[in-house]
């Protein structure tokens, strides 16, 4: 085995601490945040506080999972924050009762109907995004930015700029139970966290065990090659935006339930937090790289950092500064990680020759073999015929 091969084997199988820290940065960052804030505040490291913070993280986690699906295909969804706000407003509007003046009646749908209709609104917004991007070739940034304003404007129109309060419902009307999403616990765990876990598990299985998951990764890796290979790229693009809209709607339901109110400005700038969670988790903004585990860790990093800063009394302005710094650092580390992979792949794919050969036709390995003799004769005849022709003057 040559020296280069031995070095390559050591590079593949050897222990690289820097690479380990780089690839597991979200996990190590989360551990560091827990340790630092536990030292700074005696109330931070407690089971009850962790569960409370996890219920806040559930909002970011749901948005980040939907954003992950979009980013894996090489897209971006800037409308998730406004979709979250609109979903909460739709839920609040339905919980207040829907009046039909023509018939003189007011209907109070049960909670499960409210949830289904709200998720349908999120899916509809995602479908518009997907169709614009996949079939009309509108850039993802422009399409989702437009829907950001449209969804926020519709929410403001529905509420006239006000907030829907008292979403608890009335037992006589049969529309109670909405607060179950935000306040109830099962086995001591907040329902919002369990919803996040269920969505994460379903998404993980879809990406790793189904053809849809392979289509998503291949679309983000090279959409043209995937389409030539038979992948329904356009349908995949529409699907991921629909799923992102549904995740945003679920997050809006959980948030409005936690707040017991629904305001048209809820979820402002949450799209940036969702992108931050995906990037901190190690996904590439160019598509094709990322996973659910890393995205969840990224969401917990953002959530635990924000809540920790609140607990120790840091100003909200500084919280914004710290969050922005974390996003920039995460993008920088992603760039370092993936550029390092490209360099290593290039080194492995380019074999080095230990014995450089002089230019000109190569001598046959075995002159006595018939094929080698024929090749040598062909090269000789080609050389003679070339030598006999006059050189072309330019």
Tell me what the structure shows.
- With 394 residues, this protein is mainly alpha-helical.
- The chain contains 16 helices and six strands.
- Helix 4 crosses helix 13 and helix 6 (111-134) packs antiparallel against helix 12 (233-259).
Give a short summary of the structure.
This protein has 16 helices and 6 strands. The protein is mainly alpha-helical.
Can you tag this structure with a few keywords?
single chain, 394 residues, mainly alpha, ABC transporter involved in vitamin B12 uptake, BtuC, two-stranded antiparallel sheet, 16 helices, globular, disordered N terminus, disordered C terminus
Uncertain regions spanning at least 5 consecutive residues:
1-11, 351-394
CATH architecture identity: Orthogonal Bundle
| Beta fraction | under 5%
Under CATH, the topology can be stated as ABC transporter involved in vitamin B12 uptake, BtuC
Mean pLDDT: 84
Number of strands: 6
Report, as a whole number of angstroms, the end-to-end distance. Answer: 49 Å
Name the overall outline.
Answer: globular
State the name of the first-level CATH class. Mainly Alpha
- Helix tally equals 16
Count up the domains: 1
- Arrangement of strands in the largest sheet: 1-2
SSE topology string: HHHHHEEHHEHEEHHHHEHHHH
Radius of gyration from CA coordinates: 29 Å
Class of secondary structure makeup: mainly alpha
Report on the biggest sheet: 2 strands, antiparallel
Kindly state the percentage of residues in helix: 55-70%
